[in-house]
Specification:
Number of domains: 2
Oligomer: single chain
Radius of gyration: 30 Å
Strand content: 5-15%
Structural class: alpha/beta
């Protein structure tokens, strides 16, 4: 899975929310442990102490764990279970049921829309069920309208929480798309390159490590814009991007860097295979392109570099590929330089 900087910020957001909730539960839990122990509810105080200890443990690992959703789920299961046990065990007059109101809020903040909805449905349903069977049916003094009001209030909080999280998630996804996709060609843009490169390097088995970078630059593209206009130039870029997208393999990644420069990341290929891919691209672009009754002869120069042969990081690989692209331009264009 490729995680861009924006999604990394999203995970940081959830980590910070989890940290704040853990601190509140630890503080409140310590108070309730002492209070319930002194009130004679020693079993329940012991259960709350277990929740506090679990919260402290998750707090110590939440910043570094890659399994943030898993640990958030574990914490919420424990927290909601303690709430349900308390509602079942203690008098209705204790108003412990008010803790049900945090279920939709925490579920969506920590788990997102899909998983958060499941947690909300399960635990709110269980909470209302406990209120009805443990209190309303056994205590005739409780006015049924009280449980109805609780249910309506929970529904309102649920709807508000869902609306907020769905809108926030949609906005994050839109920003993610804007940050990762070139609006003209639909290819990935340069901002996404670092995340993809790191993902490819980490996902390849050590004995098969290779990622090839192809830097492509359209030859004399400025003349196209000057002679035919930028609208025709944009159509050329779109058609070239389609060629690149159609010819890449399923595991290859195509980028537009801006202007007339493109990039292709190709994992798990040897030098001969990389050369074949580059040559097919060069030949595909070299064919005449017809736009608005204009027939244009477009060619492309390509510089090739390979990780880890030409460098240990993205900056070194890009520098090598860019230098070879420059050589291809200097040597007459419409050619590939890979060494």
């Amino acid at each position: 899975m490729v995680i861009s900087k924006l999604w990394a910020n999203e995970f940081d957001y959830r980590r910070n929310v989890l940290k704040a909730v853990l601190l509140v539960i630890i503080f409140a839990g310590c108070i309730f442990v002492v209070s319930n122990w002194q009130a004679g509810f020693k079993v329940y105080a012991g259960i709350e102490l277990g929740l506090v200890i679990l919260s402290i443990g998750i707090l110590t690992i939440h910043q570094k764990t890659p399994n943030l959703t898993l640990w958030s789920s574990v914490f919420l299961v424990a927290l909601y279970s303690v709430i349900l046990i308390g509602i079942y065990s203690i008098s209705f007059n204790s108003t412990l049921y008010t803790w049900l109101y945090i279920i939709p809020v925490l579920s969506y903040l920590l788990l997102g829309i899909k998983l958060g909805s499941w947690f909300t449905i399960v635990y709110l349903g269980a909470g209302i069920g406990v209120l009805i069977f443990a209190h309303l049916l056994k205590n005739p003094d409780i006015n049924p309208i009280a449980v109805v009001n609780i249910a309506l209030c929970l529904t309102a909080i649920w709807v508000l929480s869902y609306t907020y999280e769905s809108k926030r998630t949609a906005m994050v996804e839109r920003l993610q798309q804007m940050a990762a996709i070139d609006p003209l060609t639909g290819l990935n843009n340069r901002l996404h390159l670092n995340s993809v490169f790191e993902m490819l390097c980490q996902s390849i088995p050590q004995d098969q490590q290779s990622v090839s970078m192809l830097l492509l630059d359209l030859d004399h593209f400025k003349k196209v814009n000057d002679q035919y206009g930028h609208d025709v130039g944009d159509e050329v870029l779109v058609k070239v991007s389609r060629l690149i997208n159609e010819m890449r393999r399923r595991n290859d990644w195509a980028f537009r860097f801006g202007g007339e420069e493109f990039c292709l990341l190709i994992p798990n290929t040897n030098e001969a295979q990389t050369q074949q891919v580059a040559e097919r691209l060069r030949q595909a672009v070299e064919k005449d392109i017809t736009i608005d009754d204009f027939t244009l002869n477009i060619t492309v120069s390509i510089g090739v570099a390979r990780w880890p042969l030409d460098g240990n990081n993205l900056a070194q690989i890009y520098k090598a590929a860019d230098a070879r692209l420059y050589q291809a331009k200097e040597q007459g264009r419409n050619r590939i330089i890979r060494t």
